[in-house]
Fold each of these.
Amino acid sequence: MPGFLDYDFLISSLDHYYKFVSGLFMEWINDSEGVSNIIRWARNYYSVFSYFYKMTSEVQTLWTEIRKTAAQSNIFVLDRMKELSLIFETGKYEADLFSNLAGYTKNVKAGHDQFREQLVNSTKQISKLAESQRLYQLIKF
């Protein structure tokens, strides 16, 4: 891929591993709807809430859930990368199409979607609680 890779690794299986893993986690890491971006937004929502609104135990619980989900998603990624590193290290893959690794593609997509949904739901709840407090303040005054 000219213009994309600046260099090759000394071992071709490492080049193949990098190519496969980069594509496998592209949505997760680089997409606007990816888990990494959603985690950043969740942190921003929590920070804004904690600055402008009265902190509640419900928001604290949601923040704990978000942090737990983020940690679980990190472990998920690292586990898949470790499993794949062993496959690529032993050469048990098809270098051209990676077709024997289709199960990993499906597994990572399902994991991404599950973690993303959990993060989005918790973040939406924080947003709803902020809106409730804002409306209460408007009605109160």
Amino acid sequence: MNYKSLVCAISIALMMSATPVNAQVDEEGEAGPWKVRAELAYINSSGNTDADALAARLRIKKEEAVNRYYLDASLFRAEDEENETGKRWLIDGRYERVIGNRFFWLAEAYYMKDKYAGYDYRYGFGPGIGYEVLDTDTHYLKGMLSFLYSYDRYWVGPYGSESYLGIKAAIEYTWNITEDLVLKEDAFYHFSLEDIDTFFLSSETALEMKITDTIALAVSYIISYQHNEPAGDIDEWDRLFLTSVIFEF
């Protein structure tokens, strides 16, 4: 059995066996509505891309009593006075199934293209488990641990591609400072089980201020790091500073 088949089999088995174990988790609980969040941002970036640019991001989610669905997409493109200096897009999705006592199973997948970081494309998928550490009106924190199959297709460097099994540890934190002011932190650490020199770090810190029920302003700082980059002239660090307008429906 190859890596892809193994990870797919584990994912399916976990999702099928993930029945709620807490009587408070009701399979017939009230279904949450689909929510859409669209974001337009001005970016000042440094690292593999040095330019001012515009970006767009989209999140679609639905949170029910037992099942939760998340889909995220982002597009970034930059140019200087003469040439394209950055182009990156990413789509990722995650399904969560609550099993009680704040625990949940999850399955996630991602696909991205970022040639200025050395990749023609990258994708990965796999199962995991999560735990809601805090869930209050003021603070929300959850941690997730995933077992992923990943495939990296390189744009540059001596190696054409690489596939590997890895572990991804992630957190999502929200602090409702006031009714209209929110601080958020999303971070992950993704490393290969086959080569400890291959790992990725990412952190996004954002401060959002609500203007109306559907419009908000935000500033955020995203920092990404890749160890064992595809080629020596690729910068290990990417940094983005965003000023955004957010629309929520």
Amino acid sequence: MEEVMPKQRQSGARTFNPADVLKIAREALRDVCGAADTDGRAGGYFGLFPKDRFRRNGFPAILEPIGRIKPGKRALAKRRAQEKPRRLSRHPDHVSSHQSRDEKRDRWGGAIAAQEYYLSFSGLPELCDETLSLIVARKLGLLTDKQARRIAGISGNRLFREWAATHRV
């Protein structure tokens, strides 16, 4: 798949066509669900959050369901897809929500910081969530392979490393 070419805003921040981003996220979901045990889960919420706007008001550029979300889990997936980048924004030295993971407080991995954006997914097991976010960031040109592998290394995410070994972006 070719990289989606972003548009430049006057402020210098890139914008992406939401339909293109969601297409990439759906393809990443198929890759992840085909390569991992997702415990019967096949969907969730994907979010793309511009850091500057998110810090001011919490609004995403994109927050959409993709795939099939289990009945009764839609609200939980949406809430977690928003909580992960919010938590990440409170730790400017972190690049992964896995770095502030806290099972007792229902705080999981799955969001990453990539240039001027946070990318988040919730609905699959957490390393699958993170893998989807990393794949989308790579395909949007927001992370280099080295940066993505570094983030995956923080959580011990072998699924992303296996994907990266067989896919060139």
